[in-house]
Amino acid sequence: MPQELALYGEFSINETILYFGWIYGLKTKDIKERVRFLVDLLDLPPGKRLVKNLSGGQQRRVSLAVAVLHQPELLILDEPTVGVDPILRANIWNYMVREAKEKKQSIIITTHYIDEARQAQTIGMMRSGEILAENAPEQLLKMYGCTSLEEVFLNLSQQQEIALKADTPTKSVEKQFKVRHEKKSEGLGELDEKLSINGNQTIVRDWEYMSCGYLVYLDIDTINLEYYPDTSSCTKAVVEGKAWGCMYIKSTFSEALLERVKRIFLNNLLESVKHTTLSEIQVWLDMTNHQIALVLQRDILQGFDNFTKDVVKQCHVDSTLFRPPIRFETVYGSNRPVFTNFAAPGVILTIVFFLAVSLTALALIMERNEGLLGRSFVADQFIIGVTATEILFSHVFTQFIVMVGQTLLALLFMIAVFKVDCIGSMVGVIVMALLQGLCGMCFGFVISAVCTHERNAIQVSLGCFYPTIMLSGSLWPLEAMPKVLRCISWMLPLTLATRAVRSIMLRGWGIEWSHVYWGYVATCAWIAIFMIVAILIVKL
């Protein structure tokens, strides 16, 4: 029985005794019989009361009941009668004396109540880590000519002080035994940028107003147009962060563009070059946000391409003459890729992984600090007890249910709220997400086994989040990383899993593809590695 409580506060009294009874290898029937006896002996409260709701003295009595429950051959109690009234203290001592005599139990007790120790067969008096005397109570009283053990201890302490000051041992303290303890962005949805336009708001389908006709072809779902009277006010809006870009269409745009096209048809290329500058559209972009700038560039060019095709079609000219010589066709995905579809697989797996880490990162720390973990392991050394493997797997089974709920909720938001495309098997995505959650739980066990304080575990968990999400290919492709970072990335538990889920959702691949099955293999391997490491650390 340790001096600290070493009990789980969320258990009731009956649950606590039943738990340790099973650890000690007792049958449920025998446990219930012992409970009835111990309730009377220790005057315990009703069995349904939670341990955390008991007073300090009542909690100590429950801890004592757990210690004597299985009637061990060797019983070590650290101040079992602290906070106990005199009558109950006498009952406890009578019980222990009876057990020692009738059942030949060896009972070692530490106490600062010297007089109550008179009932023991042998007493060892210790001060400052040194045993001053060890003998039967009557022999000590006779040897030092005292009437009480407290007086004996006082005399021995005074003699020890004299001996230490003189740096020589005294005759009364024949042997000294030294006692020493060994230390053991915004933005996964559609973009809504503002693009400042310096031009006329009136849109008329006429050759003299081709600039206005071009604006019609800009994607209004992506680009929000605002009109400014001049170029300076337009660019000022970009400088002040009120707009992402500024477009300037010259007043000669329509005439120059029409003249440019005519010269091309008349094979007068030199004259056509003269009108090139006059028919240009100037665009200033805020390139600090690469994704927004990239989308603006794409939509501005795509809008102009659609505009020119429509213009030449109205002129009864084959639009293929103005088509670029390079044609892009998609194998997977669409011509207008959405960043949400790229980032969602990695982001979801990262969320599931670190939510699972939070479930287990503090589990062993709390049990270790409460003393419950050590008490369970002590039972394993002497009786049946529980092993580190059993404790870890019990946490896995209980927390797995919570993790499944978290995972399904995250996937539901991904599909229903963010409208992420999934052309492959949703079952494969769910299985991978659950495996990543299990992997996160095992990683949390490693953190919990290594760290000794809650704050350290939280700091380690948070410290792993940013490198993982940046290096696992969730937000940035692996091919764009330096070789050193790419090597590190391949060793992360989320990298291959992210690639596998992305292949399932965006390419429709199945388990027969190497990208997919290696994701499953790597995740299972990391689960095994983390679990083995956690078990080994806990056993140390």
Automatic annotation (TrEMBL):
Parts of the chain that traverse the membrane: 342-365, 400-420, 427-450, 456-478, 517-538
Keywords linked to the UniProt accession: Membrane, Transmembrane, Transmembrane helix
UniProt subcellular location: Membrane
Record GO terms (molecular function): ABC-type transporter activity; ATP binding; ATP hydrolysis activity
Domain of life where this protein originates: Eukaryota
Ranges for domain ABC transmembrane type-2: 308-539
GO CC aspect terms: membrane
Topology term for the membrane: Multi-pass membrane protein
Primary location group: membrane
InterPro entries on file: ABC2_TM (IPR013525), ABC2_TM_bact-type (IPR047817), ABC_transporter-like_ATP-bd (IPR003439), P-loop_NTPase (IPR027417)
Protein name: ABC transmembrane type-2 domain-containing protein
Lineage start: Eukaryota, Metazoa, Ecdysozoa, Arthropoda, Hexapoda
